[in-house]
User: Fold these one by one.
Assistant:
Number 1:
Amino acid sequence: MFVISYFLLALATVLHYVLYTYMLIVIARALLSWVSPDPYNPIVRFLYSVTEPALFRIRRLLPFDMGGLDFTPMILILLLIFLDQFAVPTLTRIAYLLGL
């Protein structure tokens, strides 16, 4: 049973780092939107290709126009923080309950 608990603990740690890294990528994308970056730059293309699917889904769910301001990165960051604060401790708690 300890193997499953160590697996869940490792999964929680990896999930935490993935969510944190994605949050940094979303912040970098939001900062890039303040300037006019070269759309052919590989870093800019990477940031847009990684974040656009999630941001597009959030934009589709928003029922109204925000007056030209794009609040979707902030909403996505709040969702990532919620997942980090909910899923990671839950997995860690389950790992400890299984007998770590």
Number 2:
Amino acid sequence: MTVETFTPDLGVSMTPTAIAHTRKQLAKKPDALGIRLGVKKSGCSGYKYDTEWVTEPHEDDQIFDFDGVKVYVRQQHLGFVSGTEIDYVTQGVNSMFMFRNPNVTGECGCGESFTVS
């Protein structure tokens, strides 16, 4: 299997807070190599972000390395997430990943899904 590793400026990026959170979570999951960022059809606007732990890369994965924290993106999802900044934020009592995607042209009212052109 051939996978390629790219520098952050060619695809997705992560804030220091997101890197630190992901690194902490990866330490609890010895089988995980990193996280996968993708999209799924959902909601009233079309797509939602999908993340999961990666234990085995796919052949078509593009891998972005952030100081040892790896983000895997399948080739078919790159057009949706290219340029996206992954952050980890706390809002009230909730903490979550936040995605700042320059390709988004619209979002549904509840923020669950987005549209890209």
